[in-house]
Amino acid sequence: MRKRIGLLMGALLVATVTTGWRSRPDPTLIDISHAIGSIDSKKQTWDWLSAQELIVVTTDTEPDNLLGAVSDEIHWQGHVELWNVSTGKRRRLSGLTTLLNRGWVTPYEIPASFTLSPNRTWLVWHNHQSQDGWPFPAAAHLDGTHFREWNSDTRGYGFFLDDQHWVEHDVSKWSSVHIVDLADKRKDRKYPAAAPQAKAILALHAVQQPHFVHVDFSDQKHVVEIATYRTKDWAAFDRSLHDHRYQAPHPLSKSTLKLPSGTNLFRFGGEASPDQSMVLYHLHTEHTNPVLAFQHRILPKVSATHVDTESLWVSKADGQGFHEIGHVVVPHHSKEDGEKEELSGVEWIPGSKQVAFVYHKRLYVVPVK
């Protein structure tokens, strides 16, 4: 009898604690974030041009390229806006919209991956891709004038050398450096990667960004391996990923991060910041509050259901300082359902001090400390 009374008193105490816990919930990710405005991931794509500005591409008519079959009848149609997140103002770029709606400019797919030159003169973007996989980048002024397009390599990366010159580094076995003069295509130059001119350009880029971070979570979802490499070793690193005959360069540092118990990293849930100083993680967690679990053991009628959350975490590039930015409670999905993200479009914003995400068709920005 005394034991039963003791158990009931314990349950009453736990219930009191539980009530207190429920009445003081932690702030959610939404509570600590700044809502920018409505966005439709099904019809819109966007790229951050700076910490305060993004370009939004809205698709009205999708291109008719089913299974790679290109049609001259239906090409991409839509419009482009410039969105200032500080003021909340959205301005349609009429000239650029007119340009992109011309069939010979964007005939195959949605224009994407926009990058703005340092002095805001040029936009470079991925215009379309050929049927055999070769990309066609393009450039123009913000008003849609001075359009030009060029062939690119399937494996490589690009960056602005200055306000007028775009550089593409082909990292395949035929490694080369292509300098695109956006104002005058007659001045375009292409050098083998071993040429002095190419080495000088890549060395300058390495000074501006001396290293890059690779996040590997392919083997185990609860363990993340983080490695930092020299930027000058990018070509060798890329070759090692695509061809096992090539050996990966030695990293400057390498560390392993074990994720919290009960968490899984989303498939594309790990990303280094633009300045390569931090790593962002998008996690899914299934857990039961320990107070409710204890109460359920004493009083089985008390529910102790699982709670699913999606959360954003950050760490330094060496895995240290791993901590949560914030989380949201999400519906429970069975393993058969696969990965279903409630938080989408999770990405760093230029400047490496903020992270953007989409939740219930609204775009949010959250500061990272």
In short, what is this structure?
The chain is built from five helices and 23 strands. By secondary structure, it is an alpha+beta fold. It has a domain of 160 residues.
Using only C-alpha atoms, the radius of gyration works out to 25 Å
For the largest beta sheet, what order do the strands appear in spatially?
1-23-22-21
Largest sheet, in brief, is:
4 strands, antiparallel
**Mean of residue pLDDT?**
83
What series of H and E elements makes up the topology? HEEEEEHEEEEEEEEHEEHEEEHEEEEE
The proportion of strand residues reads 35-45%
List low-confidence stretches.
1-9, 11-24, 66-70
Report how far apart the termini are: 54 Å
The gross shape turns out to be globular
Counted by DSSP, the helix tally is 5
Percent in helix: 10-25%
Number-wise, the strands total 23
Structural class, from secondary structure content? alpha+beta
Topology (SSEs and partners):
Blueprint: H1 2-23, E1 34-38, E2 44-48, E3 53-61, E4 77-84, E5 90-92, H2 94-100, E6 112-116, E7 123-129, E8 135-140, E9 148-149, E10 156-160, E11 165-170, E12 176-181, E13 189-192, H3 196-208, E14 211-216, E15 223-230, H4 234-242, E16 253-258, E17 263-272, E18 278-287, H5 290-298, E19 307-316, E20 323-330, E21 343-348, E22 354-359, E23 362-367
Antiparallel strand pairs: 1-23, 2-3, 3-4, 4-5, 6-7, 7-8, 8-9, 10-11, 11-12, 12-13, 14-15, 15-16, 17-18, 18-19, 19-20, 21-22, 22-23
